[in-house]
Design a protein that fits this description.
Blueprint (H helix, E strand, L loop, with lengths): L1 E2 L2 E5 L3 E3 L1 E2 L16 E4 L3 E3 L4 E4 L4 E10 L2 E10 L5 E7 L10 E3 L1 E6 L19 E3 L4 E4 L3
Parallel strand pairs: 2-9
Antiparallel strand pairs: 1-4, 3-7, 5-8, 6-7, 8-9, 10-12, 11-14, 13-14
Length: about 140
């Protein structure tokens, strides 16, 4: 039996797998025999069961533990690095707003790849001079 039965590993990260060889009654053998490890893709696995993900997302790939004629498997999927919030993009970027009129602004938080985060945070709006802005990003220009 290979544990965990499935795992998702971030690109270039590691995941430790373990295996237990059981007897015909489902009891762990004592002592445990040696285990040979292999993986069908997505990275590499060492003789201790430590999987190192490659730099490309994909899968699921199969991790196999072999002891004599016995085998056990687990699934491993390689995922892209988790998103990290790195920038806020405000739109419109350089608007011209006529005196005493309004203009709606929006904000989007992007990750390290320039992609919008799947779950956007709430934003706090402020303006220095020229008018006011409410909590939803609606700017009201002053009379001058």
């Amino acid at each position: 039996m290979v544990s965990p039965a499935s795992a998702s590993v971030i690109t270039n990260a590691t995941q430790s797998f373990s295996a237990v060889v059981n007897d015909q009654y489902g009891q762990p053998l004592s002592p445990q025999p040696s285990i040979a490890w292999s993986v069908s893709g997505g990275g590499s696995i060492n003789s201790s069961g430590l999987f190192t993900a490659g730099s490309t997302a994909g899968g699921p790939h199969t991790v196999t533990a072999t002891s004599g004629a016995l085998t056990g498997t687990a699934a491993v999927t390689v995922a892209l690095t988790p998103p990290v919030a790195t920038s806020i993009v405000v739109s419109p970027a350089n608007p011209s707003v006529a005196a005493s009129t309004t203009r709606q602004f929006t904000a989007v938080m992007n990750d390290q790849h320039g992609q919008p985060l799947a779950s956007q945070p709430s934003f706090t709006w402020s303006v220095t001079g020229g008018g006011t802005i409410d909590s939803s990003g609606l700017f009201t220009a002053g009379g001058v």
